[in-house]
Amino acid sequence: MKRILCALSMLALCGAAACGGDDNDNPPPDSGTPDSGTPDSGTPDSGTPDAGPADAGSFVAFGIRVNDPNAPTGRYIYLGAYPNQFPGANPDGGGLDTSNLTQFGNIDINYALGDAYVFDRNALTMNEYTVTDAGSIQDAGQFSLLNTGIKANTALSSIYVSEHHEVSYTFAAGSSLLIDWDPSELAVNNSLTATSLSGPTTTLADGGVTTVYNRFGSGNAWVWGNDIAFAISWYNSDFSAINPAAVVALIDKDDITQPITYVTDTRCIGANATFIDPAGDLYVSGTSQNGPFQLFPPTGTTVPDACVLRIKAGTTTFDQSFKVDLLSATGSTAIYDTFYLGGHMMLVIALDPTQAAPTSAATFSATAKWAPFLVDLDTGTGTRMADLPTTGVTQFTQYILDGNLYYQNYNTLSTSSTPANVTAYLVAPDGGVTTEATIPGDIWDMGRMQVH
Hints:
This protein is mainly β. The protein has a single domain (about 5-450), classed as Methylamine Dehydrogenase, Chain H (7 Propeller), CATH 2.130.10.10. It is about 5% helix and about 45% strand. It has three helices and 32 strands. Strands 1, 9, 10, 11 and 12 form a five-stranded mixed β-sheet that branches. The radius of gyration is 20 Å and the shape is globular. The relative contact order is 0.17.
């Protein structure tokens, strides 16, 4: 029997790089609900390992978000499948063929075992979709998650674990839920409230520090040995307090009821992203919660420079011999996000050192100007990337497909805006950039589907 573990929080919008979800768990604009502390996410933030190289019967599944004033939620999500390559790929960034797309409303999309699983946030149903030889998406069945205790407009994100398990997760202040369900039977097996990861009161495992913060964030998640590993942080949405450590949570991938291990380090704070290198070591980026706490620390708080730390494979403590200072590497004063490219190379989005800095935490997201840098974790040095655009008031998301990083950014002028066209880039580990496609919306998810 195939089983999938899902975690759902009672969010209107949440971080989900790995599945289509409302952009990454950062505090930039395009936040969906003002003052909710739950920004849009793609995403992405990308924690789902890819399904391997393309082969016969393999399709790239691709979702896009398009704003539409006639849609009940102001937007539609479209899902399509394209044979063996990123859709619309050409040297000039040509348009996407949308003729074979299926329209959905307020959904999240996850991929497992060659199929797509579409979660309807309003109806609280999960539909399985298969792909035909012609690339058409076919509905293969549905079940309800209503009796699990989740509420309407709840977002879902996912990480592929093994042939029989997929862990979907989103954790937020006040309520989190893990759901164990069976994709072969399309039925719920079990659900569990994850109180140990929930706010507003959270006790960290680094000395009994108890914090009462009204916002909770989680970054990308990965299978790491016998655990699921992801960066987490607790902070106030009014920027008045933040937990003074970078924290990685480790959850037993086969038994979610086991105690959670927290690995902490005070050399940087506000952890928001993780990745695993070819040696199996786990890295975490502490970006002071995407920058605002770096420039505007809470009263009485000393905020260390944003950095990258490492936990070596087989250990559950941070390696004290390793630290990369991201401010020094970029010459910047704040870091928004980091994206893993391969080897020990990262794409780092930093406050543009040539532009005027924001003047307050409250206006940080609306006034910050961001620039891309290629950072080498072996040398701790960075180089500004000329082939990726520098923009302001910007949302960034990433998707990993077949080991490659696909990256998009776009200007957001209000909480409801999505631009008419978004450019997607393929970024190589050496910093090479290829313009892949111009999309009539923005990337909502990427994954692989397989003809059975």
